[in-house]
Amino acid sequence: MTLDKHQLEGILQISATTLPASEFEKLLIEAGYIKIGTAPAQGKRIKAWWSHPTFKRVEVIYSPDEAIAITAYHVN
């Protein structure tokens, strides 16, 4: 649970360790990110990739039911 451990470009630092997916995705959308894909992740979790025209891509790990954003970080 590490949303608060990573700084995402275009978004103010998150102080919570997790957020409801709808709340977290709203932050991404407002910053101009677009969801580009999903896949299964370790521990039955779901990973999703979000793209932005100028910032690095973001990978988000969600709970198995996709209701909670657990962590997010930039990937190349």
Discrete helix count: 1
Query: What form results from the Cα inertia axes?
Result: globular
Under CATH at level 1, the class stands as: Alpha Beta
Instruction: Compute the CA-based radius of gyration.
Output: 11 Å
Task: Report what the structure shows.
With 76 residues, this protein is mainly β. The chain has one domain (19-74): Nuclear Transport Factor 2, Chain: A (Roll). The protein is built from one helix and five strands; from the N terminus they run E-H-E-E-E-E. It has one helix at residues 21-30, and strands at 19-20, 34-40, 46-51, 57-62, 68-75. A five-stranded antiparallel beta sheet has the order 1-5-4-3-2, covered by helices on one side. A hairpin with a 5-residue loop joins strand 2 and strand 3 (46-51). It is globular, with a radius of gyration of 11 Å. The relative contact order is 0.27.
List key phrases describing it.
76 residues; Nuclear Transport Factor 2, Chain: A; 38% strand; single chain
Helices and strands in order:
Layout (H helix, E strand, L loop, with lengths): L18 E2 H10 L3 E7 L5 E6 L5 E6 L5 E8 L1
Antiparallel strand pairs: 1-5, 2-3, 3-4, 4-5
